[in-house]
Amino acid sequence: MASIEETKPHNKRTSQGRRKIDIKKLEKKSNKQVTFSKRRSGLFKKAAELGILCGAEVAVIVFSPNNKLFSFGNVDDVAGSYLNNGAVVPSSSSTSTLVKGMIELEEAEEKKRQLERQATLASILENNNINSWWEKPVEEMGYEECDNHLATLINIRNKFSDASSSSTDFDVPKTKTMPFCGDWSLGLNF
Amino acid sequence: MASIEETKPHNKRTSQGRRKIDIKKLEKKSNKQVTFSKRRSGLFKKAAELGILCGAEVAVIVFSPNNKLFSFGNVDDVAGSYLNNGAVVPSSSSTSTLVKGMIELEEAEEKKRQLERQATLASILENNNINSWWEKPVEEMGYEECDNHLATLINIRNKFSDASSSSTDFDVPKTKTMPFCGDWSLGLNF
DNA sequence: CTGTCTATCGTTAGCCG
DNA sequence: ACGGCTAACGATAGACA
After folding, report:
1. What residues of chain B, 19 to 78, have a C-beta less than 8 Å from chain A?
2. Is B139 exposed, middle or buried (0-12, 13-18, 19+ CB in 10 A)?
3. Which residues of chain B between 34 and 93 are close to nucleic strand D, CB under 7 A?
4. How far apart are CA B157 and CA B154, in angstroms?
5. Can you tell me the distance from the alpha carbon of A12 to that of A189, in angstroms, rounded to the nearest whole number?
6. Which of A41, A135, A178, B125 could bridge to A190 as Cys pair (CB 3.0-4.6 Å)?
7. What are the pLDDT digits (tens) for B139-158?
8. pLDDT in tens, B154-183
């Protein structure tokens, strides 16, 4: 008799579901992008959960492979407070050395990307005068409409910064803000 | 016949393993601490994986419930690069060198502008005394000793800052640095 | 690129040593 | 507090829409 698979050949799943992968640089560009999205979401979700569960302050900063900036958390609280309280002082010494080393590395590409990141951050900071790159305290995001569950989240104000720019120029990315992303409280989906 | 449970009553697992919890502030203080540790590790691991898989720059900053500071990632690249390189104004010499390298990339113009912008920002930052919370450039961490596996990680330079402070005051936590944490490359265990 | 689905893989809550 | 254990739970690779 016909086996199930033979009965419905078009129905056989080509995907066995998740497969194990080893943690190494993804080569397939398309895959990389998808994975980045998914995992970034996951990371932010984890960050949120940690913050809620433990009452911790959490901030996450991520540059995508394409140098897009994503961030989670009340960075101004977490990082800002630290900074304002007097961080370790700057030493201007390492600069030339660093640059030198970089050049010797002949990894211009990588360097370029770094510069882009720097530029991004710089621009953001410039625009916001060192204050929240997520633009505002969450209060303005209209949480009030949120139910009890969301209330918890206010504690963990979260926001996205998406700095886009023309791929060549990369000038000053205007910090686009995503007010909120759906069913936060329950699903913690981003 | 005696059921298995009855046969070995002392062996019956009191724990059904993981149980579902809802994401809300943990009340039990002991639990909270344990959960924080576990989940912080998990978060950092995720962050590392994201960075490796996708070639993304990731930085995470966490204040524990007790206001201890933990951080993951090449914060100096992600956020601090502009501090260490840009903030500390690149001297014209190193700048030109850098730019030179960039020219080979055919994007010198943009880069130069960026550097200039950074320089501008630098002064601003200097005035505001906003500098690296991450204390130093990673160079001091002795990555070079890392083997191939770790090589991947170099890209993702990682650092821990552990700053403790009186729970009430929260003043300026002194950034204690943990150079590296064990079997990073394979297990990604923290 | 964002979402859905599924089988699987990886994380972790609760316990105990 | 740390580490180990185990079963459940939650995240996600891959394929598709």
Report:
1. 23-26, 32, 35-36, 39-40, 42-43, 46-50, 52-65, 69, 73, 75, 77-78
2. middle
3. 34, 37, 46
4. 5
5. 30
6. A41
7. 333 333 333 333 333 333 33
8. 333 333 333 322 222 232 232 222 323 333
Secondary structure of B123-155 in the HEC alphabet? HHHHHHCCCCCCCCCHHHHCHHHCCHHHHHHHH
pLDDT 10s digits, A168-179: 222 223 222 232
Domain ranges of chain B: 24-91, 92-127, 129-161
Residue B69 CB neighbours (<10 A): 22
A-B CB pairs within 8 A amount to 267
This prediction's pTM? 0.58
Token pair, residue A123, equals 């621009």
> Which residue stretches of chain B have pLDDT < 70?
1-13, 74-190
Beta-carbon separation of B105 and A103 below 8 A: no
Instruction: Give the gap in angstroms from C-alpha A168 to the nearest C-alpha of chain B.
Output: 8
Separation between the CA of A86 and the C1’ of D5 (whole angstroms): 44
From B49, B65, B105, residue closest to A112, measured CB to CB:
B105
| Fold of the domain spanning B24-91 | SRF-like (3.40.1810)
CB A123 within 8 A of CB B122: no
Which residue gives the smallest C-alpha to C1' distance to D7?
A: B17
